[in-house]
Every structure is written in C-alpha cells, then in structure tokens.
Amino acid sequence: MTETASGSVTRGGKRPRKGLKMKRIFTKPGVHPYDEIQWERRDVVMTNWRDGSVNFEQRGVEFPEFWSVNAANIVTTKYFRGAVGTPQREWSLKQLIDRVVGVYTRTGIEHGYFAGDEDAEIFDHELKHALAHQVFAFNSPVWFNVGTQSPQQVSACFILSVDDTMESILEWYKEEGVIFKGGSGSGVNLSRIRSSKELLSSGGTASGPVSFMRGADASAGTIKSGGATRRAAKMVVLDVDHPDIEEFIETKAREEDKVRALRDAGFDMDLGGKDIVSVQYQNANNSVRVSDEFMRAVEKGERFGLRARLTGEVIEEIDARDLFQKMAKAAWECADPGVQYDDTINDWHTTPETGRITASNPCSEYVHLDNSSCNLASINLLKFLKDDNTFDIADFVKLTELIITAMDISISFADFPTEKIGETTRAYRQLGIGYANLGALLMATGHAYDSDGGRAVAAAITSLMTGVSYRRSAELAGVVGAYDGYARNAEPHKRVMRKHAAANDSLRTVGTMDARIHAEASHQWSECLKLGEKNGYRNAQASLLAPTGTIGLMMDCDTTGIEPDLALVKFKKLVGGGSMQIVNQTIPRALKLLGYQQEQIEAIVEYIAEHGHVVDAPGLRKEHYEVFDCAMGERAIAPMGHVRMMAATQPFLSGAISKTVNLPESATIDDIAQVYMEGWKLGLKALAVYRDNCKVGQPLSVGNGAKKEEPAAETAEPEIKVIEVNRPTRRRMPNQRPSTTTRFTVGGAKGYMTASSYPDDGLGEVFLKMSKQGSTLAGVMDAFSVAISIGLQYGVPLETYVSKFVNMRFEPAGMTDDPDIRMAASVMDYIFRRLALDYLPYDERAALGLFSAAERAAQQRGEDPAALQEAVDREALAQSAPIEEKQKPGKAAASEREPAPGQELTLESHRRFVADAPLCMTCGTKMRPAGSCYVCEGCGSTSGCS
C-alpha cells in the first residue's frame, strides 16, 4: 500500500514537500521492466477488404512474445505515431509506452506527487511493467496524443450543454464537430430548449429540440464521412416531462418505417448503402431521462404532467403508462430510446451544489456535470487470477492505487476541446477507472454469470476497486490538494461515500473468493471515510464501467467491460497470416476447477470445438452447464440475467455502466417494458436494450433474400397425382474440351486445379492436385475430384456445390496468392469460390453473396454490378471464346457479408446464432458488441467513445 509522507527532496532550493512514497508491485530494484520480457520482431500487413490490396504495412515491429498477433496489429496500426516508412515512425511497443509514461512521470515530478526521485522511478517502472504485460490500459486518446505534437487530449468522454438560445444551439453544433473531428464522442440534454408547443418572445412557435436534432445529426454524419473512420458517437437526452417527449421517442422508429418503404421500392438501404444517408437521426443514441415520479405514475397507472420549459407549469397531462409503452414499442422497433434514471443518478451525485447531472457520454457510463470530460482506464481482471485460482487482492489494490495516481496526473497536463470543458474538468478532476475480462474471470473460476455467486464476485471486485480509488483520491488530496469544487460540495460528497460504504456493508457473500475480496473492500472503505474526513478528495468521480473496445483487444481480453463471454469458440490470428479456430482457454481451466479429469476435459473441449456449446457434452454434468453460458448461442443468458449483474455492481460505481441488454428477436414490447421497469427498481443509472434483427438496414442477411412461396390453398377434394420420376442420366464429357488450369496457394499450401467445360458451356469436370502422387492427400483429392465431376455430369448444379463448400473451415487456411481471393477458410472454400466466380452467372452468385472486386467497386460507386458482368460477357463473346476460359477482371472472393471470407459467417453458424452487428467502416470485418457500442476485432475500431 502506498504511503503519504514528507520527503527530503527539494526543487530549486525550495522547502521540502509532501509526496507519495511508492512501493513496488511487479518490478525489482535495479532491473528495468523491459529487461525481463522476451521481445520479438513481427511484420504487420493489413489488406483492404474490398479488393485485397495492402492498405497498411510495417515490418519489423517489436512486441513481447506473449502478445497476440491481433493485439500487436491493432497497436501498430492505431497507436504508433509518425509517418509510415520514415525514421520518425514508432516501431516498438517500448517506444509507445515510453512516450506516454514519460509524460506522466515528468508531470508527476513537476507537480509534487512523489516524495523523492526513487518514488518517481518506481512509479515509472511499475506503469511500464503493467502496460507491457497487458495488466491495464489507458483509453485510446492517451495512446493517440500523449507525448506527441498534437494537443494532449486524454479524455474519451464528453458532456456538453445547450440553452434555449440560437447562439447556444449553434455553439453546440460547433463543439460537437470539434469533438467528433478528434475521434471522441459527446452527449447532451436538450430539455432546456422550448418545445414545439410553446411560443417564442416574437409570438411565433418554437421549433422544438427534435428539429434541432436533425441539424446536429447531419453535421455528425458529414464529419464522419469527411475523414473519420467510424461513425460519430453521440448521445441525445430528453427529460420525460418535456412536451415534445412523444415526438422524441418515436423519431428513430419513424425513420425505420422510411427505411422499409425505400427498401421495398428498390433503394439501397443496407448499412453503408448509397441511399441510407437519406435516413435521419441515425448518428446518435437517444435516451429518455425518467424521474421517480414518472416511474411511480407508470406503476400506478396515473396521469403525468408535461411542463413548459421556461415557466415549469404543466401544459399537458398524459397517461404515464401509455407513454412508457410507447418508449418500449419504439425500442422494440429500432433499439431507441434507452432510459436514464434521473433521480437515481443525482442521488449518487458528489457535486450537486455545482449543478445537476443531466446527460451522459454516448455509451452512458460517464454521468456528471455539463461541459465536463472523463479519462478512462481499465484493468484486466484475469491477470489477477493466480495459479491456485485465488484472486490476488494485494496486487489488485496496489495496481488500482497506481492507476488512479496516473489518471489524476494526466489532468494536470491534458488539453481539452473547449475552454468550458477544460475549466470544469480541472476543477472537478473526474476519473473513470474500470475493468475488463469479468466474464472470463467468472468462467475460469467456475462461477455462472447469471448466479448469486457470479454477482457476488463481481460486486466485491467493483466495491474494492472503487473503495481503493477514493481512498487513494483522499491520499492525493493530502499531497496536492482536494479538487477545486470540493469545499462547496464537501457534505454531499461525503454523503455519497457513506452510501457506497453502506452498500458494501449490505453485500452478502456466497463463497470463499468473494468473501476474501469483500473483507478487503470493507477495510478500504473504512480507510477511505477516515482519510476523506481529514483531507477531502482529489476527484469528484473515480469509477465506471466502459465498453473497453479497442483497449480490450490491446490487452488480449476474452470479454469486454462487464460483459459475459460472447461464445465458447473463437478464431485466433496466426503469425504470417491465416487463423485457427480455438476453444476459449478459460474453459479447460474452469473444467479442472470443477473437478474433471484431464481425459474428460479433452473430450468436452473437443465436443465444444465441434458444436460450439456444451449441451450434451460427454461427461459434463448438467449442473455445470450454466458456468459456460454466453451472451449468445445455444444457452444464451436471459435478459434479466444481464440486468441483475448490472444491479449487483452499480452501487459501487461513481458513474454508470455501458452495457446493452440483448433480447431475442421473439421478445415482445412488454418484455422490453419489464426490463426498463426492473432497471429502475434495481437501482441502475442507465439502461439500453437491443432486440435482435430489429434494424432494417442490416449489414448481414441470413438468407439470400428469396421470397417464400405461399402455400397453395387447400381444395375440398385433394387430387391424387402419379408422378413419374426420371432417373438422372450422365452427360459425359467429349474427348476434347476447353479447360483452365489454376495454380493456387492457401495458407502456404500449394495446389493446382484443372476445370473443364462442355463445348456448349457449363462446367463438367474438376481435377485437383495438392501433393506428390501416391500420398494420402493426393489420393483423397483425386477421389474428391472424381466424385464432384461425376455429380456435375449427372446434373448436380454447380451452385449447389458452391453453397455447400464455400465457408467450409479447416487447415490450411489463410492468405492466398490469388489477387481475386485474398483469404480462404480452407482449400475447399477457395476452390468453390474460384469456380463460382469463373462459371456462375451474376444473378446466381449475387444470391449466394459472391461478387468480384470489380462488381464490389461498382457498388461502391453506385453503379449496377450486373451491367459490369454483361459488359464482360459481351467482350468474351466478341472474342469467340468461352467466358470460363477468360480471367474476368478484378474478381474477389469476399462477399458483402464476408469481409474476411468464411470467417464471420462460419463462426456464427458454428455458434448457432448470427451476431447482429455492423461491419467495420475501416476494414470491413464484422464487429462484435462491446458494452453499448461495437468493436472490430480485425483492426480495433469502435462505434463509440472507448
């Protein structure tokens, strides 16, 4: 534990100062943390998902040997600074960490945080060790900006404010634009703006906040398309007593109706389609601020008053239950609006004398004063699970102290996008420490996510983290002073500290693990209250739970934020390209802890690898199934399981939790209403829901879009028909036939394919060679070739083979040397993609989701891809040669649905679910949920403000 002491170090002959006495956690005196790491050089090459061209390449980058390929790729492409190919370009993780930590350490020395030079060195070494070993990570703006020539922006989350004047509204547009340009997100409450039912001073009628949302939405979309690689992240909030609340609630649902109508009329309304830009209000998350008064009126079926903005008088009364049902209906249709529980948020507010909390950041985890910001950092919980399956409480406490110290130091050197935000943040010093890998930790220790034991562990860890954070904040207040606004808010701040401590006292433990953590949390809260009474606090806010999208990948986390595991099987990228399917490594550990023998573990893991779930796994007891429940799939965690986990941890957080409660497509409007009601009763601060496939403009379609035939009407007297079935006949190939031989490489394995066609068109024969004659592989490929060829000659359509074999996954897999097909999930995946592109007409390929690169490029330009195919066919006919013999220009294997061929769809099929998530705007890979946002596992981009 760190101590506060008077040091003997002087600066420029000045009197001795107080400072922190730092103690080592992971490092050793006289040994630099980098010297204990095995480093290795790697090449990072990223390809364009549209045409397979290389869009990033940096060779010889240096990372610890235990970092995954994915983590190294993301850090290299997103966080290394300097122009690629120049001497100024960073090429080692050491350089990146040194750049960031150097600024933190120097600033800490300059502002008197440390008792002496040795303490500063310990701080420096411990930060470097923890970051290099993926024990925690700062949020992305720190890695982007700190130590560079750019403004030293360290915050990812911003809250703005808007008053009821045109000048303020236009200033809001400007401030949002500046924040979006920097790659961050912001939130705002528009409830001060007069409704469309109120008069202006000139006598006219006000436009209302929803009309001004339209302009802000267009601005966000323009800035995104003007250079950002992800959609602008923003939150718009409106109070439930605003007279325009019904219009606000239904805004995005009405736009979904527009999408349906335009789609049915033939417009391109897919996500990223050329016509989707005509849809409004799509760049923001919308949330309704509900009060306790409103929620009680909903419970009792009473009427509720909507109030004028300037006078506060009730100008209209509505049925509270009816409005609440409309909220649930809109969320059922399009996932918006979410809810924020206003009275709960402000009851836990540390600085109410300064102002109320009215809004949040885009992901709803940062809730504090208007015109403020928060910098985030997240701890990798799995790093504290020791070999004996106990949680390393002592190291967790020390690391939390270290992180809070570093985060507070960053406010001393940070730059901010607006002067108002800078003033508020420096005066209140809001921090957002959180964690990732909770789901993986629970599984590895044999705790079901939706269980009393799982919730007890999560609650105890969260309580310990926040208790240590505020205790450290009180220590910092004794060294460098309390935050500027503390004197004004001392009593309410201390009241909230007592509320946290009381919640900790009320926590009921279930097992040994959570009992030990809870005991330490109780000690930390006791010390926190004592020190806070003496020194005050350095920070108005300390903790929250963020999505941890990009930084979660940087830390090689299996799960993000507070989320459970998404699925039991995942793909791991390999050095040199390609990937392999693996069962999550926490599963064998959990099985061993649950008492299974090695032979049983191997059988269960093999079953999971094949089926993607544990149901009917050999030897696995049914009472253990729940340990392996995931967010989606065969045994998906129930929606209320997510709500209960949020409720278990919320009392121990300064802020809120970024998490979306996913519901199945079959969920009803009443199901969503129940989730919103239970969230209020259980004391959550904010809640968002998402019903699978509720959006029209989907990035991924399960089927091929073909309409189902209507069943024939029943007749009174069914007619019996005798149908004569003709036996198929074989159409043999002529002795001389046109053919094409293709040499290919898949994942380093070389092969040859000879495809022959009938003189009057149509594939009739395929021969494959991949090994020396006489080998087992050569024999298998010969037999497979004969079987396919005979099937084709007996009339089996090529598209049938393509639909069966495309996306088949096995090794070798990975990069190919075919410029048209950059990635293949297996040799069979490559072969039948090649055959489809060479022999199937455009309409049939389109139904299967297979397009050439030229066709994809045409789609991007807004042209008709079919016209391109017709032009190719005409050219081939003009040269009097079969189309199959010609190499069509720019062919590519990647379909609209599969930026990395076969990877996402195969995995989703294996998991028995389809993840309803957008495609990454940077690399085209299917993203995955991370809190209430999405993160791309291919390049690390996020849809929110991580």
TrEMBL record:
Cofactor(s), by name = adenosylcob(III)alamin
- Keyword check for Acetylation, yes or no: no
Basic and acidic residues: bias regions: 883-899
Instruction: Check the record and name the InterPro entries matching this protein.
Output: RdRp_reductase_class-2, RNR_2_N, RNR_lg_C, RNR_NrdJ/NrdZ, TSCPD_dom
The UniProt annotation puts the region (Disordered) at 877-908
This protein's source sits in the domain of life called: Bacteria
Q: Where is the Ribonucleotide reductase large subunit C-terminal domain?
A: 155-690
* Function of the protein: Catalyzes the reduction of ribonucleotides to deoxyribonucleotides. May function to provide a pool of deoxyribonucleotide precursors for DNA repair during oxygen limitation and/or for immediate growth after restoration of oxygen.
Question: What is the official name of this protein in its record?
Answer: Vitamin B12-dependent ribonucleotide reductase
Identify the species of origin.
Nonomuraea coxensis DSM 45129
